[in-house]
Design a protein that fits this description.
about 280 residues; ATP-grasp domain-containing protein; DcsG_Biosynth_Enzyme; 8 helices; 5-stranded antiparallel β-sheet; 3 domains; nucleotide-binding; 4-stranded parallel β-sheet; ATP-binding; about 25% strand; D-amino Acid Aminotransferase, Chain A, domain 1
Length: about 280
């Protein structure tokens, strides 16, 4: 069995977080290697990993995903989850999300407090801007500079103190969690590839309410796509605390998220490898 871990030309073997995966897969008889997406290489299964240049080439990326005979996560997931308006779909299905509105150039209904503007098509926090209360001229200029629609969300101030909690699932089953420190800060730095903001990460132990929300979000996404959550080889559910401390969904990452292997137990790559093998067995 041959598996390709798909990356991009700037990060041909990922960002280092996935370094243990090739050996973990080899341990259970799966031949895995890295490949830049669109290269023409073929395998029994292609697993999307650090394909982080896709926002600038999204049409090409979607066409390539659709052409891959066996893709994880499934190709049907990619158009939906690479457009952040999926948050509106999840909100309509009853998932508690950070309040989110869609903004086009000319938008004027800005939040009264601090808020965030992020492009609907984007990765690695590129194009996201944290805006001071009342600074609507900066907000309008940034929205216009994006050249397309964006999401506007009130900034959840608890992030500055406790960060985001990312819950990771393999094959629909909870694996581990990690905390991401606030990223939209004045001293935020991009890695040398320029594809993502360098994150401050550490291990985490999610609460029961966080686990329930994460699973509800996965189930809602699966229903929307006509799938079952076990069809997701991997998923990362990013949660923040709301004004009353309640968990809220910030993002649901089903295409190319970092999975925090360096922030959790050494068995996590083995769990991922078993989930890959399970996916292969169903092909």
């Amino acid at each position: 069995m041959k598996v390709l871990l798909a990356s991009c030309a700037s990060l041909p073997t990922g960002d280092g977080d996935d370094d243990a995966l090739v050996a973990a897969l080899a341990d259970i008889g799966v031949d895995a290697s890295w490949s830049v997406w669109g290269s023409g290489e073929t395998a029994d299964l292609v697993v999307l990993r650090s394909t982080w240049d896709y926002p600038e080439r999204r049409d090409e990326f979607l066409a390539w995903c659709a052409s891959v005979p066996a893709l994880a996560n499934p190709a049907a997931v990619v158009p939906w989850n690479t457009d952040k308006t999926y948050m509106l779909d999840l909100a309509r299905s009853g998932v508690p999300v950070v309040p989110t509105v869609l903004a086009e150039p000319g938008f004027t209904d800005w939040p009264t407090g601090e808020f965030v503007i992020k492009p609907t098509i984007g990765a690695g926090s590129r194009g996201a801007l944290r805006v001071d209360p009342g600074d609507f001229s900066t907000a309008a200029a940034h929205l216009a500079s994006l050249g397309g629609p964006a999401l506007v969300q009130p900034y959840q101030t608890a992030v500055d103190a406790v960060g985001e909690t990312a819950l990771v699932f393999f094959g629909g089953q909870y694996s581990h969690a990690f905390t991401k420190g606030a990223m939209l800060t004045k001293d935020a730095e991009y890695d040398e590839s320029g594809l993502y903001i360098v994150e401050r990460l550490s291990g985490a132990h999610p609460t029961g309410p966080q686990r329930r929300l994460a699973e509800d979000a996965l189930d809602a996404a699966a229903r929307h796509l006509g799938l079952h959550r076990t069809d997701f080889l991997y998923a990362r559910v990013d949660l923040v605390a709301g004004a009353e401390g309640e968990p809220l969904l910030l993002e649901l990452e089903l295409v190319e998220p970092s999975l925090g292997f360096r922030q959790t137990d050494p068995a996590a790559p083995l769990r991922f490898a078993s989930a890959v093998r399970s996916t292969l067995s169903r092909l």
